[in-house]
Design brief:
The structure is a single chain. This protein has about 70 residues and is of the alpha+beta class. It has one domain (about 5-65). It has one helix at about 45-65, and strands spanning about 5, 15-20. The protein has a two-stranded antiparallel sheet with strand order 1-2. β1 (about 5) and β2 form a beta hairpin. The termini are far apart. Zinc ion binds near residues 8, 10, 13, 25 and 27. Zinc ion (ZN) binds near residues 10, 13, 14 and 28.
C-alpha cells in the first residue's frame, strides 16, 4: 500500500500527496520515488541514495548559511 500525505524524507518540509508519484520536492529537489520502483536488488542499496542525497542537502544548507 502506498503512503499518503507523508513528509519529504530529505528535508521534512514538503508533504508529498502519495508515495512514488515522481513529484520533485520544491524545497530540496528530492524525487518522490520508492525503493520498490527503483532498480535495486536489496534494501541497503535502495536506502543509500536517500542518505547521500540528505547529506548533500544539509551540506548545501550549511554553505548557504555562511
Ligand atoms: Zn524535500
Amino acid at each position: 500500500m502506498l503512503k499518503q500525505n507523508f513528509k519529504c524524507p530529505i528535508c521534512a518540509k514538503h508533504i508529498f500527496r502519495i508515495e512514488n508519484d515522481l513529484e520533485v520536492c520544491p524545497v530540496c529537489g528530492y524525487e518522490n520515488r520508492t525503493a520498490q520502483n527503483a532498480s535495486y536488488d536489496n534494501h541497503a542499496q535502495a536506502e543509500f541514495p536517500v542518505r547521500s542525497f540528505r547529506a548533500e542537502y544539509f551540506n548545501r544548507r550549511k554553505e548557504d548559511d555562511e
